Amino acid sequence: MRFDLTDLRLFLAVAEAGNITRGAAEVGLSLPAASERLRSMETVCGVLLLERGRRGVSPTPAGEALAHHARLIERQMAHMRGELSEHAKGLRATIQVLANTAAIMEFLPVRLAPWLVKHPNIDLDLKERQSAEIARAIAAGHAEIGIFSDAVEIGDLHLRDFATDRLVVVASKQWHLAEQKKINFRQVLEEDFIGLMDGALQSHVEDQARRLGAKLKMRLRVRSFEGICRLASSGAGIGIIPGTAAKRFRRSLPLSEVRIADAWAVRRLVLCCQSPDWLTSQARDLFDHLAVDV
Length: 294
Prior knowledge:
The chain is built from ten helices and twelve strands. By secondary structure, it is α/β, with parallel strands linked by helices. The strands form three sheets. Strands 3, 4, 5, 6, 7, 10, 11 and 12 form an eight-stranded mixed sheet that branches. It has a two-stranded antiparallel ribbon with strand order 1-2. Strands 8-9 form a two-stranded parallel sheet.
């Protein structure tokens, strides 16, 4: 039974995504090439590795066993690259990091900059995911470091504090609730919203509306917090963004900011890994760096 590293990376990507097309894109393969590799793996094993259905794919018990060993091999490869990079000038290493929207857009750029400058031969594979998905992915060994809200099920993951993320409503100075210090989310469900085109934070906010039996009236979706603030300050609608972003844009825009009183709007962001002992030396150094002064 012989698989190459591309086979194993592909299988893990497909298993995590639950979709062959997305898994193939993750590892840079075309759909036909990926499908052929997966079929060949099943032929070599003599057993079905993936259950295929209308909603995607999921690993069979044999597939779960293969995924477990593939993760162990990936971890061993990461350790090997990490140790070699300490002795071989110019050898690059990559650290896999999963983070939610607030961490990526508000906190990580400032935290990462000095570390990346100090480690020119290390790249980061940074991906945005929802908090619950990050916790599951780290527990399963799909990435080395995760940053997410501690409101989700943590399990046995190793945690360090990272930041506090407080969501607020941003609107024009003339908005009818602009003078309020804080409001309940239910009070704004009938408003016109400016939101993000995609991302974990936008999904989180829309999930909260669904829990209240409502659907947000999205007037426009943009790509950045700045876009939300510029439109909201003009009176085009309201938006929900981290308070750190609102404070930054209030310096240059006629923007009002009102805290959301609901518990879900105050999120403690945590840094996590399966265990510091399982991280490569570079990943452990990054982990410790990100947790400094919190």
